[in-house]
């Protein structure tokens, strides 16, 4: 039965895997933009431009993540949950993480928006970079767990 289920889910899993690769590429660009945020006086003029780059990549993430999560839940997690109690538990956990990740993205967006409006940007850089790194680590860890646990379907 597992082989039949895997064959049925495989095309959907491939789509999700491709979306994971696209997500990783977007995270890489966001990470590079955040790394460009520095508080040295000689690069102050580039600070807002770099923050705008980060906001643009984060906006793409915020726009794409809900649809990705919805597709993943419908096409992969819901059907995989029917295969075994262990997979059902894993899929429930991934759905809970989806909610948390979307909230983290929204909070980080708010932080970047506050940064863009603030007069005292240099004081916010460290906190903003930490928040971004935490978000990216959580997203990467989430995707890695899905890729590992659901590898037979991807």
Question: What do these coordinates show?
Answer:
The two termini are 17 Å apart. The chain is elongated, with a radius of gyration of 18 Å. It has four helices and no strands. It is mainly alpha-helical. The longest helix is centred in the middle third of the chain and has 38 residues. Helix content is 84%, strand content 0%. Helix 2 packs antiparallel against helix 3. The model has no long low-confidence stretch (mean pLDDT 87). The protein has a single domain, classed as nmb1532 protein domain like (Four Helix Bundle (Hemerythrin (Met), subunit A), Up-down Bundle).
**Alpha-carbon Rg, integer:** 18 Å
How is the CATH topology named? Four Helix Bundle (Hemerythrin (Met), subunit A)
What order do the helices and strands follow? HHHH
Instruction: Please report which band the strand proportion falls in: under 5%, 5-15%, 15-25%, 25-35%, 35-45% or over 45%.
Output: under 5%
The computed structural class is mainly alpha
Provide a brief overview of the structure.
By secondary structure, the chain is mainly α. It has a single domain (2-153), classed as Four Helix Bundle (Hemerythrin (Met), subunit A) (Up-down Bundle), CATH 1.20.120.520.
Write the layout of secondary structure elements.
Layout: H1 2-35, H2 44-81, H3 85-117, H4 125-149
């Amino acid at each position: 039965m597992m082989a039949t289920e895997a064959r049925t889910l495989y095309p959907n899993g491939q789509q999700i895997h491709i979306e994971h690769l696209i997500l990783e590429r977007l995270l890489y660009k966001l990470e590079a933009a955040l790394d460009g945020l520095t508080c040295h006086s000689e690069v102050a003029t580039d600070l807002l431009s770099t923050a705008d780059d980060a906001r643009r990549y984060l906006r793409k993430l915020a726009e794409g993540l809900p649809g990705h999560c919805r597709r993943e839940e419908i096409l992969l997690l819901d059907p995989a949950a029917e295969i075994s109690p262990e997979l059902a538990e894993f899929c429930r956990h991934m759905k809970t993480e989806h909610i948390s990740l979307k909230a983290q993205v929204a909070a980080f967006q708010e932080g970047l928006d506050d940064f863009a409006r603030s007069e005292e940007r240099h004081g916010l850089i460290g906190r903003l970079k930490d928040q971004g790194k935490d978000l990216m680590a959580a997203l990467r860890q989430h995707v890695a767990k899905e890729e590992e646990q659901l590898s037979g379907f991807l």
